[in-house]
Amino acid sequence: MKFSAAVFLVLILSTVIVAFAGEPDSARAYKDVAGKIIDEALANGQAYSRLRELCLQIGPRLSGSPAAAAAVEWSRQEMVKAGLDNVHLQPVMVPHWVRGEVEEASVVNSRQVGTVPLTVCALGGSVATPALGVVGKVIEVKTFEEVRRLGAGAKGAILFYNRPFDKTERNTFNAYVGAVDQRGRGAIEAARVGAVAVLVRSMTSRLDDIPHTGVMHYEDGVPQIPAAAISTVGANFLSELLQAEAGVRVNLRLSSHTLRDAPSANVIGEITGTELPDEVVLLGGHLDSWDKGQGAHDDGAGCVQALEALSLLKTLGLKPKRTIRAVMFINEENGTRGGKAYAAEIAANGPRHIAAIESDRGGFMPTGISVDADPGGPAFKSVAKWSFLLESIQAHRFEKGYSGVDIAALGDHGTLVMGLVVESQRYFDYHHSDNDTIDKVNERELELGAATLAVMSYVLANEGVGVEGR
Amino acid sequence: MKFSAAVFLVLILSTVIVAFAGEPDSARAYKDVAGKIIDEALANGQAYSRLRELCLQIGPRLSGSPAAAAAVEWSRQEMVKAGLDNVHLQPVMVPHWVRGEVEEASVVNSRQVGTVPLTVCALGGSVATPALGVVGKVIEVKTFEEVRRLGAGAKGAILFYNRPFDKTERNTFNAYVGAVDQRGRGAIEAARVGAVAVLVRSMTSRLDDIPHTGVMHYEDGVPQIPAAAISTVGANFLSELLQAEAGVRVNLRLSSHTLRDAPSANVIGEITGTELPDEVVLLGGHLDSWDKGQGAHDDGAGCVQALEALSLLKTLGLKPKRTIRAVMFINEENGTRGGKAYAAEIAANGPRHIAAIESDRGGFMPTGISVDADPGGPAFKSVAKWSFLLESIQAHRFEKGYSGVDIAALGDHGTLVMGLVVESQRYFDYHHSDNDTIDKVNERELELGAATLAVMSYVLANEGVGVEGR
């Protein structure tokens, strides 16, 4: 075949040209360093044992909770123990939403099944129902367009958003993006047509009876109605019942409510650069989690990886020219207050951040780096040229893509922002649910993610990113 | 930098040349087909529900056990239900080893810790100890060279093989290969110097208290001594105790023994080729498992994937020119009788097998295909040229490598043999232990492996492998 003949010719040519070009000393030296970092992470890494401690001794840590305060102090102490420089807290006021004691829902007096409980949980930010709950006729919808067409027909109803994940999406984050508007804006759109509450199909393609929480929003001038996630098993059951029987009603009871903002903090530590200490490469994750499971993959993993990356460099005696800083951001889940406060502080007072990488896609096998820059441009290339350092662990796929919620704002101030990309298939089985626990994390995969951060931060701290910003 | 400049130049050149070459119709058509196969697997695949049934309703299925017989009949019925052609059993006599009721070990009367239980399990094939157990002084060794140096000093002792996995190996299979000689030949080498039993550190880098079984061997003319795996936690404890205290003794009790060979079978079904029905592309896994856990990843996954690949093609109405056959081999774990009988039958009576792919590395995210052929040769290239079909799921890494235990012998008769390669980090957490259960399998990863087999078998069945054998 012509096609494959051409490809092979090119492959052979590539090999020849690269072989002739040879590897200059710095490439060879960095490859050596990368090998040592990966060896050390796999042989003696501490990321997993730290994450186990965070998950089992502190547990879930929603912004404003006592556990979140414990996590901040635990992180500070871990940074001190790891011998980081300039360990400090950046105070941040955070939203303080609590789930309360009650969250339950039932189909009421169905002709076919009688009264049947449904597995639900309040969405983050939701107001409570009255103490006895809210009862309404259930109307199933899949789009906001359908909601608007309901018009006055939705008055007094409970809208049931049931558009599932598109399972054919190869990357599960695309499926998430394709469904999550229901959770984020569902209550607003429903309230506009007079609905009294919403149930939202959990954000996962997995079929089980575990509801997945996550942030939802209200809008000024639109009534605030209660919003709950329903498990995928519950959603399928309810949908089938609605097809079989007219006038199905549900009673929803939630006790969630929002308290006054609470004091909290971003946790910061670093390895001071030997030559350009006032230029920073940032590694980050977010310390807060939802109040379900243990926040293991989301995002305890990213926090311990950022710390581990610095620990690995210290253990190996590697001294970067620029400063490498680990930041555990607070309040990514329901406010991004930590990320916003951090970006504002850097914009106002520096130091200059040349690059930032966030790990917030779970502690799975790393596959590469997403760079928020034009793939044809010099910034992208200045990063992607180092991908060969990660080839031994197959984490060398560098693509244009999103960085992370906590660091995206840094990009607006000239920082080249990036994300650690990992195998995505398992993430939404666990995300924001009781399933997100330490036993779902594989130690080696977690460590290889940390090693990837260590390798990239070290080489970028030494070599820079070539151009200002993106 | 010169190095990266050269690389970028080559990348740009590659793009240009490939773009000019264009995609001929057949490449485009196969890409379409591959996309449909992957969509169907992700949206409607049955591999996971079949595997759940095999794991939960039949469970572990060691050769010769009633559960293995159930698994054979279940598989036959599943193939019939899936509408495969020529569904049949190939009778095979298999070894019949049983674990028995008793397997326990204790440190006896240690000065420091008294009598303490150790978590062990019999290695597959091991003889029993006397009913009251065997007691011996424990000697820790890491190599057979050390064993030989012990000489008469090992007489009456229990040798404790404690060479761990090399955690720095990027691919865990290499770590396994570097340690598994202790399990396979440990009893032989120990018996030669007069030891009365062996304990072998479990074949995993994970630290937990679950022992991992697996096959061990005896040799004619060498006394058969009992052999057990000890958990990694137990091995570390025992090793520390040995350093602190001289003359530590262990009592080991095993009731395992070998019965007469039992009748069993390989399970075979196919989609008959439309143009060359007497030429076969084989997809395989092995149906037997160890008698621990549920044999989910090892290798229920491979079996349901082979069947799923054919189901996907049938569902999509894809009719291959050559026959595609799914084979669930029996007795991979302790005898390879199924694989040997199959290869002997094909060598004697055909039909000709042009290619075979085994899935026996767990149902994890597929990363590519290992081809047991010279990477510079035409056989390798005739397969690797199709890797672009798997790029959308990042399973397009084609490398020279091992195929699979059950199909390797086919390679000697001119078949191009290959293996499905998957992400390796988690496999040995579960392998041959109570941890190998259905909850460790991710539905989407399992399906994507099946889709990879479907895509490759379909294109090879239509296009052939270019040359005879390797």
Task: List the SSEs and their pairings.
2 copies of one chain form a homodimer.
Chain A: H1 2-21, H2 25-44, H3 47-58, H4 66-81, E1 85-98, E2 103-110, E3 114-118, E4 120-122, E5 134-141, H5 144-150, E6 158-161, H6 172-177, H7 181-192, E7 197-201, E8 227-230, H8 232-244, E9 249-254, E10 257-271, E11 276-286, H9 296-315, E12 322-329, H10 337-349, E13 352-358, E14 366-371, H11 378-384, E15 397-400, H12 408-411, E16 416-422, H13 427-430, H14 443-463
Parallel strand pairs in A: 5-6, 6-7, 7-8, 11-12, 11-13, 13-16, 14-15
Antiparallel strand pairs in A: 1-10, 2-3, 2-9, 4-8, 5-9, 10-12, 14-16
Helix pairs in contact in A: 2-14, 3-9, 9-14
Write a brief caption for the model.
The structure is a homodimer of 470-residue chains. The first copy, chain A, has 470 residues and is α/β, with parallel strands linked by helices.
What does this entry look like structurally?
The structure is a homodimer of 470-residue chains. The two termini of chain A are 41 Å apart. The N terminus of chain A is likely disordered. Chain A has 14 helices and 16 strands. In chain A, helix 2 runs antiparallel to helix 14, helix 3 packs across helix 9 and helix 9 packs across helix 14. Chain A is of the alpha/beta class. Chain A has an 8-stranded mixed β-sheet with strand order 1-10-12-11-13-16-14-15, with helices on both faces.
Labels describing this entry:
homodimer, 470 residues, alpha/beta, elongated, disordered N terminus
Largest interface: A-B, 50 and 49 residues
Instruction: Estimate the helix proportion of chain A, in percent.
Output: 25-40%
Oligomer: homodimer
Instruction: Please tell me what the overall shape of chain A is.
Output: elongated
Number of DSSP helical runs of chain A: 14
Name the poorly predicted regions of chain A: 1-21
What is the count of β-strands of chain A? 16
Q: Summarize the helix and strand pattern of chain A as letters.
A: HHHHEEEEEHEHHEEHEEEHEHEEHEHEHH
Query: Strand content of the residues of chain A, in percent?
Result: 15-25%
- Average pLDDT taken over every residue of chain A: 94
Q: Mind describing the biggest β-sheet of chain A?
A: 8 strands, mixed
The order of strands across the largest sheet of chain A is: 1-10-12-11-13-16-14-15
Distance between the termini of chain A: 41 Å
- By secondary-structure content and strand pairing, the structural class of chain A works out as alpha/beta
Radius of gyration of chain A: 24 Å
